[in-house]
Amino acid sequence: MARYGTLRRNLRRNIKPWVEDDAVKFRDERALFAKVLAVFVVLSLSGAFVPLVANLVFRIPDLYSFDLGRTQAVEDIGVKVNNGDVADAISSFMRHRTDSLRINAESDSGKVPLFTGNDRTVMMTLRSFLDNTLAIGFTLLALFLALCFMLVRWNRPRELRLGFMGGLAAYVAVICFPVLVIVFGGPPMWIWKEVIGAAFVPGDMMPELFHRGFFLTSWIAVTAVTLAIIIVLLSVVRRLTRHESMFLGKIA
After folding, report:
1. Residues 182-199: pLDDT tens digits?
2. What is the CB neighbour count within 10 angstroms for residue 96?
3. Rg of the chain over CA atoms, in angstroms?
4. Is the four-CA dihedral 3, 7, 9, 13 of positive or negative sign?
């Protein structure tokens, strides 16, 4: 029995420091990994909601109908066509309900197609660009939710809060940059041709109907919707990080 007691004491003396060191190492690794996750929270937050909301805004007829009514552009080009019909035709095309961007307008020489073939080609390019950003938006949204869940589960309120605030700052930059491009133009406008690959030519109708103010109006709509989402998320994050006891995990 004496030998058995001695063996137990030796095992306890030798194994306990190893367990403690291993636990400390595990906590340090998790803390480092949590900081890495916070960086990805910044990127995913700023890149998720803007593409998703932009897809919604640029695919609904209300945006096009509002801008046509605001500018009275149809009357200026000398043809007769209902603003609502034009908005519905563009919206149906952008939502993949049809691949034909066709609508007839009344002119002095009778009924004529409102849009040119190049109008359709450019709008198809823009539609494909939106499709790609939609996939990116959903991917980043799933990533953002997964990262937030992991940080909550690991009881890392500081990293979650810093990641969200960093994402908020990046979101502001993402929102402001297009506004500066729209208002002041300049070299950043090369993105329109070089990145999106869209180029209207003289005679196309889309540039005649929708001017620079259209993009500013649409971006204001995108900003309003995304800002409402961000404010709701900010309230949730503040509640989660206010008291660490609200977190599910207990391992630091």
Report:
1. 777 655 556 666 666 677
2. 10
3. 28
4. positive
DSSP string, 201-247: -TT-SHHHHS-HHHHHHHHHHHHHHHHHHHHHHHHHHHHHHH-GGGS
Using CA atoms, how far apart are residues 23 and 96, in angstroms rounded to an integer?
55
Residue found by looking up tokens 């002095």 in the block: 108
Average pLDDT over residues 114-126: 90
Which percentage of the chain shows pLDDT scores above 90?
Answer: 33
d(CA 241, CA 109): 68
Q: What is the rounded CA–CA span in Å between residue 200 and residue 184?
A: 20
| Residue 251 clears pLDDT 60, i.e. is over it | no
Q: Are 134 and 51 in contact (CB under 8 A)?
A: yes
Question: Tokens 């603003």 label which residue?
Answer: 83
3-state secondary structure of 197: coil
